[in-house]
Structure formats: C-alpha cells, structure tokens
Amino acid sequence: MWTCKHTWKRSSINTLWCLIGCSIGDLGTIIYFQNINHSYSVLTVMGLAIIMGLITSIILETFILLKDFNFKDALKIALGMSLISMIGMEVAMNSVDFMLNGKAVVNLETLIPVLLAGFIAPLPYNYWRLKKFGIACH
Whole-structure pTM over 0.85, yes or no? Predict the structure, then answer.
C-alpha cells in the first residue's frame, strides 16, 4: 500500500497546499506577536497561531475549490477536510519552533525545519487517507 508513487505525489501536492494555508495564519500570527509588546505566554501565542493557521488553511482551500464548486459547497468541502492532518501539521510546526527557539518566533535560521516538519508530519496520514478512501481536497 505504501509504494504507490502516484498517490505519494498527489498527497504531497495536497499537503503542500495545506502547508501554505496553515503557514500564512500560523507564521503571520507569530510574526505579529513577535513585533508587539504583550504579556501572553508562549503557549497562548502558539495556540492562537494554530487557530489562525487552521482558519487560513480553510480559507485557502475554499478559494481553490471555487474553480470547481459554488461557494457553499467549496466551504463545506474545505471544512470537511481532515482536521487531524491540519492539527498534526500545526502541532509539528509549533513544536519544532519551540524546540529550536525556545519560544514562538519566526527567523530565517529555523524557518526551513519548521516548514519541513509541518509538511512531513501529516504526509503519511494524507497518503493513507487518499489511498484508503480516495478522499482528497483538490
């Protein structure tokens, strides 16, 4: 089951789109809090970053799906995507960020490992989901 190159390619493309959507909200939130004075804890900032990452991913997916569906159906499909995959991606990104930086921060030295973790963490699940159920968001 794990040797289908076509399915790995398709699930990689789907995961990349999700990574783009999640990263916009996640990293944008961290950059915002990185540049203002605040008294929020690291966990609070990371929690907000995860929520914003999920929201921007759903918005991006809805926008992408509008080429094939009306708005209501596109939004329904985007909301029905695997939250397990998106949450796994978000948790992986923020965990690597915390391990490398000790706080919620975006910098060029750790950006690639953070994004790589966000891509790799949900990829096997996305492959399995696509292979077993034929379910993809694109």
Answer: yes
